[in-house]
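User: My collaborator sent over this chain with a note saying "see what the structure looks like." That's all I know about it. Can you take a look?
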Amino acid sequence: MSIESLKHKLHTHCGSSVNSMVLQLKDETGQLVAVLNDDCRKLGFYSPRNGWVAGPTWRGARAANRLASNRPQATGRRFTAHWLPHKG
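Assistant: Without extra context I'll predict from the sequence alone. Here is the result:
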């Protein structure tokens, strides 16, 4: 699955534009592991592990509006064996 495909999946949950999203990959302690900023790369390039979270941040005017709003922030997606795409 490409980073762009992941953004499209997250778009259905948070409603943010795919073009305004920047994904971050964090480990189980919340430490930033990588910024997923190359839409053409596959998710596996970043070697996510179970328990790690990929979540959106926003850039531009959308970010300012989201911070100023009372809407809840979108939560990251936890990686589990059944969520990761199967190879085969």
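A starting point for your reply to your collaborator: Residues 3-78 form a domain with the Ubiquitin-like (UB roll) fold (CATH 3.10.20.90).
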